[in-house]
Amino acid sequence: MNWRRSLGAAVVVVPIVVLLGYGLTRDPRAIPSPLPGRPAPEFALAVMEDPVGSGQGRGAAGDTIRLSELRGNVVVINFWASWCLACRDEHAALSATARAYEGRGVRFFGILYKDSPEQARAWIDEMGGQSYPTLLDPGSRTAIDFGVYGVPETFFIGPDGRVEYKHVGPVNERILVDRIEAILAASGSREETP
Amino acid sequence: MTRIIGYTATAVALALAVYGAAAAVVGVRGRRSDLLRSSELAAYAIFALLTVANLAMVYALVTRDFSVSYVAQVGSRATPLFFTVISLWSALEGSILFWGWVLSAYTAAVVYLHRGSELGPLVPYANATMLGVGAFFYLLLVGPANPFGLVWPVPADGPGPNPLLQNHPLMAVHPPLLYLGYVGMTVPFAFAVGALLSGRLDDAWIRSTRRWTVCAWVFLSLAIVAGMWWSYEVLGWGGYWAWDPVENASFMPWLTATAFLHSVMVQERRGMLKVWSLSLIIATFLLTILGTFLTRSGVLSSVHAFAQGTIGYYFLAFIALVLLFSLVLLAGRSGELKSEGTLDAVVSRETVFLINNLVLSAFTFTVLLGTLFPLVAEAVRGVKVSVGAPFFNRMTVPLCAALLFLLGVGPALPWRRASREELRRKFVPPFVAMVVAGIASVLVGVRAPYAVLTFAFAAFALVANVREFTIGAAARMRAHGEGPLVALFRLVGSNRRRYGGYVAHLGVIVMAVAVAGSSTFKREREATLSRGEVLEIGRYQVRFDRLWAQDEAHRFVVGADVTVLTNGRAVGRLDPRLNFYGGTDQPIATPAVRSRPREDLYINLMAFERDGSSATLRVLVEPLVMWIWVGGGILGLGGLVAVWPSRRRRGRASASFERPAEPAVEAPAAPPANVAVRFGIAGGGAQA
Amino acid sequence: MTRAALLVLLALGLAAPGPVGAQAPRDEAELDALTRKVASQLRCPVCQGESIQDSPSELAQDMKAVVREQLAAGRTPEEVKAYFVSKYGEWILLEPEAHGFNLALYLLPIVAFVGGAATIAVAVRRWTRRGSLAESPVPGAPSDTDPGT
């Protein structure tokens, strides 16, 4: 047993152990999105009828919302479903934040993922309303366009129509406000220095 | 109370394992038979303790004692008794507990079967290694994977086991077989370590090791086939092998163990490849631990993974330790492992075994690389990639074809050297069969090159292996005037190891043909049918009759009644189902399979209308699938034939004895086992 | 090296030739077959490891529908796969594209195999020649393909 052999053994062992150890720090289920920094995929989706009528003024039931027509606004898109437990946790934060930013160039939309409008309406009713409209996405085309792989997922789109952030899992008010403020600040400074 | 009994048993087992390992090492070094004896007793005691702990857990599960953390995790009042019992291995902690029991049983068996063996100091070292590995698992049970934790306040009910794992009775078969195979690979490893530590590197140890390896290999083979079957019957996609990390984890040690079973023959006959065979044993053991690490730590995403927290770091430390320890041992002894043998000719069975080992090693490397590559890519490039079935199929199908071919060449080639006449006699019939099968499969419309190759090579290998039986039996019939069946039976009995190997070969050939057939000729259609509507596939008409629903205690089942017709005549009814278990939104499918020797009709319910008006069915026609399971059975049978204890055992209880292979041809190059020098007090002395 | 690599990839059928007949309208059977082929190369995001062809999950079904629509619209399989990569990242491909660092995945097994074969060839020659020599160095066990170390 000489030092050269020990070194040889270490050369074999260390990389394997380091690699596996590195693996332990990663979440194998997370799929990083290539979307941030790129233009958000365009969509034209119908607004779901709202049980409370709280979506009023932001697009009535049956209206079609086109992302391209929202240029100039910060757009927050939340993919959700009534069968999703985590969506219950974030619902209040989304509704409250949407209300807080009303009229400040920030628009919130829900997109229903793999769910029936009836169940979604019952859910909204149960949760005490939703302060922003939810859009219907038959066949999940828009969800696939956004690379959604589970709900809830929340996308933050800047005034220039680019995806700025993607959040996987339930959001809270702090995340929402931080992200929105960051986008507002960045776009504000961009406007000042043309 | 159950909790305390279980936990105490595992804790005492841990202490005894540490003591026993130390006692064995100190005892063998200091030639102290009292210590050796106490380490043997420790092994027996641990087996008893782990049995108690496992029974305690089963008792807690059956009595639904939700104060026990594992029961609170996997139990539920609604789960049927059968699935409650087997939920012992349906989640992390319980599976480690069961693993610990299997390991303790192997350890006790090794100690018992090799007591007083002439392997001398090797056995105490092997015992120490087994106990050391055991100590690691019992440490997990006492620490990060404690199944006997206290839950307070006691919940009224639990969520029940993972729906995937309570959906099919094969779950009672596959995991125990897998553990018997996986854990069984600890024994050859322990012998290898024992041989390296004691310096007893002659051939005596390799014989015991080979036998234990065959034993574990049989379990592992059967486990893999049972896993394929489970996957086919439960996952609902109509396939049996997906190159999922967990499947790869069970396949890699099988590959290296298979390589070892072949390389060891060269070592026994020619005294060559000693370092290589040892490396294969160590690699096999490491791959079983790596496989466990991959499934238990959540490093790679997989259908079957139990994602968990800190336990991964324990496994990582253990892998590092074993790797380092083995490499240091191997390096330290490599001087004594010099090759003694030589080759007489290039064209010989020895060379085929070398190539066989090359292909199996390259196979293992490819699977390992593919399995770990997503980690490598993320570490190096910071980008997540996937390595799935298309990659593995592309890379390994050529290797499979090569193995199939070698499987025919090996038995047909004699050891040492072959005369031209002998080559002609041995190779012409299989070669003719190969050409005929190749042409025939092209004529019946097989176009995929690898399918043609598989059928041709299978014919080649089949004829080559079957001829080993027929030629031998014919010789016996002439020489002893025996009837054909008696001659065949006695032929196999005369050299079980050799003919068991050929039987295993036949199993592999059957599986290869079945896999090639089912993947090449697989037909599939998917359609949404309203009531009474018919879907045509192959020679079948599949008619959707109606939907039904049923509320069971632990699940809600939706099923479709489907009538299968051929030429307008009803030949059977099938009921594919979707099962909705509480706690998850994804339904678990129960596909309906009509299995016939010629082909399987596989129907999976994909979706349905709530009013029962229509159902979406995925229908597959897969030829020959049944023969995969049959081939797996033959493979296991071959292993059993090879490993079954001989009636003419010379020793008392040692598993190391066996008649040398093919005694009629030549004497083995290695000295017989009983020449080995006794160590004095070890073994026999300790019995007194 | 690059040329050798390309040759190897061609032999494996990896280096795809340019799109052929992308514009030709596809009939139903052809479209089904092509959809199956493309769908079996895309990983289902909600099932871990299965392709969207094999998965019964609803998202996979929808993705398969997207594959079919895009193929029907005349896109090539490569373009369809590129679409999914642009949405889900390289992760979505069940078989990594053979360029850049990913080449290691395809070439290392071949290197290991060829290296092992060469080692065996040398060893067999030495062993067959050696005959009478009693002592000689440890023969080349092909440890570079040793999977566990």
Explain how this protein is built:
The complex is a heterotrimer of chains A (194), B (688) and C (149). By secondary structure, chain A is an alpha/beta fold. Chain A contains five helices and seven strands. Helix content of chain A is 38%, strand content 17%. In chain A, α2 links the parallel β3 (74-80) and β4. In chain B, strands 2, 3, 4, 5, 6 and 7 form a six-stranded antiparallel sheet that branches. Chain B has a four-stranded antiparallel sheet with strand order 1-10-9-8, covered by helices on one side. In chain B, a hairpin with a 2-residue loop joins β4 and β5 (569-574). In chain B, α5 (92-113) crosses α7 (174-184) and α14 (389-412) runs antiparallel to α18 (496-520). In chain C, α2 (28-39) crosses α3. Chain C is built from five helices and no strands. The model of chain C is unreliable at 5-23 and 132-149 (pLDDT under 50). Chains in contact: A-B, A-C, B-C. At the B-C interface, α10, α11, α13, α14 and β9 of B face α5 of C.
* Average pLDDT for all residues of chain B: 87
Ends distance of chain B: 40 Å
* DSSP helical segment count of chain C: 5
Give the N-terminus to C-terminus distance of chain C in angstroms.
Answer: 27 Å
Strand content of chain B: 5-15%
Low-confidence stretches of chain B: 649-688
The largest chain-to-chain contact, stated as pair and per-chain residue counts, equals:
B-C, 74 and 61 residues
Question: How would you sum up the major sheet of chain B?
Answer: 6 strands, antiparallel
Number of helices of chain B: 20
User: Which percent band covers the strand fraction of chain C?
Assistant: under 5%
- Helices and strands of chain C, in order, run as HHHHH
* Gyration radius over CA of chain C: 23 Å
Compute the number of strand runs of chain B. Answer: 10
Shape of chain B: globular
Q: Report the helical percentage of chain B.
A: 55-70%
